[in-house]
Every structure is written in C-alpha cells, then in structure tokens.
Amino acid sequence: MSTVDVVVGVVVIVGLVGIVVPVLPGLLLVWGGIAVWSSERQDATGWAVLASVTLLAPAGTALKYLLPGRRMRTEGVPTATMLAGGALGLVGFFVVPVVGLFLGFVLGVYLAERSRLGQHQAAWASTVVALKAAGWSMLIELLTGLLMAGAWVIGLVTG
C-alpha cells in the first residue's frame, strides 16, 4: 500500500463522516480522493473506478433530493416550508456549530408550518414528515458514499 492509498483512504473516511456530520462536502471529498488515486495510478482499473464513482455521485445526489421530496409532497408539506427549513438551517449552521444546521432546519420547518396551518399539532406533524425526509436523504447520500468507497476498495485490492 502506497502513501497515496493511505491518504486517499483517510480522505474517503473523512468524506463519509462529512455526510453524517454535515460540516464537510462528503460525496465531493469521496469523489475527489478517488479521482486523485485514479490519476496517480494511470491504469485501466483506476479509470474504471473513477468512471463508476463519477456516475454514482450525481445519481445518488439526484435520488437524495427526489425521493424524500416526493414523499413530502405526498404528505402535503409544501416546497416553501422546506426552503424555510433550509434557510434557517443555514443560519443555524453558523450560529451553533455542528448541530445548528439540524436545529435551524427543524425550527424553520416548524415555524413555517405553524404560520401556514395555525396550530401546533398540525405543524409538528409536518415537521416530523420533514425530519423523516431529511433522514432518508442522509441515508441515501451515505449509501452512495459507501458504494463509491466500496468501488475504490475493490479497485485497490484487484489492481
């Protein structure tokens, strides 16, 4: 195992952690590490692994938005509510490090739904739907990252 392999392994692990703890651009780090590894190898295995992860990353990213978004629309949570959650999540990210993104998202969704629906129970029900959708989104992204890491490990072992 070369130094590049070890460094790329660390970058891939940091990227996977960045998916779960949204401080770093997780999939981008995983893809970038694998791209460095592939360009260092300069062989068919490296390029095949890079091609596969280059296809996986946008597919997983699209799925992480499409599937939970469809579920939320089915449950009656409007897009404006999600945008409010995202905006307050962004503010929360800078106000309260690490957990602020999550807290801001929950607060934003709740406040938007409370304003729209006028009562606590209905607003909280919509907030729970949004939280489940956010969880599915993270799970889809993590699965994509793990598939990408798996492709790299297979390339590392077989090449």
- Percent of residues in helices: over 70%
Radius of gyration, in angstroms, nearest whole number = 19 Å
The succession of helices and strands, N to C, reads: HHHHHH
- Give the strand tally: 0
Structural class: mainly alpha
Shape: elongated
Summarize the structure.
The chain is an all-alpha fold and 159 residues long. The chain has helices at residues 3-20, 26-41, 44-75, 79-95, 100-117, 120-158. It has one domain (3-158).
Present the secondary structure layout:
Layout: H1 3-20, H2 26-41, H3 44-75, H4 79-95, H5 100-117, H6 120-158
Q: Would you give an account of this structure?
A:
The chain is an all-alpha fold and 159 residues long. The protein has one domain. The protein contains six helices and no strands. The termini are close together. The model has no long low-confidence stretch (mean pLDDT 91).
Looking at this protein, list some descriptive labels.
single chain, 159 residues, 6 helices, elongated, mainly alpha
